[in-house]
Write a structure and sequence with these properties.
Elements (H helix, E strand, L loop, with lengths): L2 E7 L4 E7 L4 E5 L6 H13 L3 E6 L5 H4 L2 H8 L3 E4 L3 H10 L15 E3 L4 E4 L2 E7 L8 E5 L4 E5 L2 E2 L2 E2 L9 H10 L9 E4 L5 E2 H7 L10
Parallel strand pairs: 3-4, 4-5, 5-6, 10-13
Antiparallel strand pairs: 1-2, 2-3, 7-8, 8-9, 9-10, 11-12, 13-14
GO molecular function, one term: metal ion binding
Cofactor: Zn(2+)
Protein name: MBL fold metallo-hydrolase
Length: about 220
Amino acid sequence: MLHIKSFTFNPFQENTYLAYDDQGSAVLVDPGCHTAGERAELENFIQTNGLKVENLLNTHCHIDHVLGNAWAKKRFGIPLWIHEKEVSVLKSVEVYAPNYGFHGFESSSADHFLSEGQEFKVGQEMLKVLFVPGHAPGHVVFYHEKSGQCIAGDTLFRGSIGRTDLPGGNHELLLNKIRTVLFSLPDETIIYSGHGPETKIGFEKVYNPFVGERAVY
């Protein structure tokens, strides 16, 4: 079974996720932990539950999702996986981080690249990598078919979608990818978003004002 634990970190109220199997193999997704207290909260959960963090994944590389990248890589001795189109996005964070008040930001770099359709092992479980650009040029989501769970970053939110006014954003592309990729998943699929509460595909198909049946185009 795949378990997903969420933490809400940093001033952007970003959701960081740990996905792990029954044997304790784990991946860390979008570590937004920036302060010592946030990092201690994450570590305490890992230690209490006897987890072994084996990989670090970024759905995309905007600042709020990568604040803990460098720390996590060193703390757990793990490689970072991102989509190749996110390399420049990740690199730019070290330039603009001070503008957001993160003067101690430590940059990180990718060790491996994720590809569309790739199956990523989490112990005995498998996450499928789905390519959903629009909010960011190399945005991916991680779908666990067996349990119907999807870590979706900043693509789809409860009643909303990711912003597309940042560099590399594309509004029409994001709408298209939500409709053709995410909405192809079963209605009961749980969406774990990069901010805010979880939602379900079936609910968003009907009620999301941007892409749902009741959306005004």
